[in-house]
Target: Sulfhydryl oxidase
Amino acid sequence: APTATSITSKDGRPKKLPKRMVLGKDGKPCRSCNSFADFTSQKKLITKGAIASGPPSDCPPDVEQLGRSSWTLLHSITATYPTNPSTSEQRNVSQFMGLFSKIYPCWVCAEDFQEFMAKNQVRVESRDAFGKWMCEAHNEVNRKLGKTEFDCSKWEERWRTGWKD
Ligand code: FAD
Model:
């Protein structure tokens, strides 16, 4: 992904950026592609409290907030998907996933997700297949970010039925 160590500020002088800052397609720091910590350090708003508690809930989302909300929506869609979907229900979710991967606001995330979808066609023939496919898609991102993989045999407990006692 395009990153930069400096950008030109409004007064024409180069402005130093944090090492991992991902830029938007407009060449400016991309809020939904970076963590709050990286973004705020660029904006010189670092206060220990702000970074520790994450972005305020009434601010535009960073890459993590956007991700958590999006996974909640995606897994919830699989949880309410029919066990035996009609042809049109299958077509609808296939189209939705294709469009979702194109318009996801973190463009670097979107490009990787499109690549994953090109190699792993979305499975929509049943709730179980769709739920497991989504779990695998999420695990692909988990691996990329060095997070623990989720046990996909438990996707329904996490997102539909609640945990067994
Ligand atoms: P999340 O990963 O958001 O997970 C939320 C909850 O889902 C977890 O607490 C857990 O209970 C459950 N869960 C975890 N894994 C699974 C699974 N495999 N199946 C079912 N449930 C699960 N961030 C980046 O920095 N770079 C990226 O390239 C990037 N790409 C993304 C692509 C997409 C399509 C999406 C939706 C998000 C992407 N993100 C990316 C955001 C990233 O995946 C996380 O959402 C973000 O880092 C916050 O992580 P989290 O630890 O709070 O939990």
Notes: The beta strands are 6-8, 14-16. The chain has a mean pLDDT of 88. The CA atoms of residues 90 and 124 lie 6 Å apart. Residues 63-161 form a domain with the Four Helix Bundle (Hemerythrin (Met), subunit A) fold (CATH 1.20.120.310).
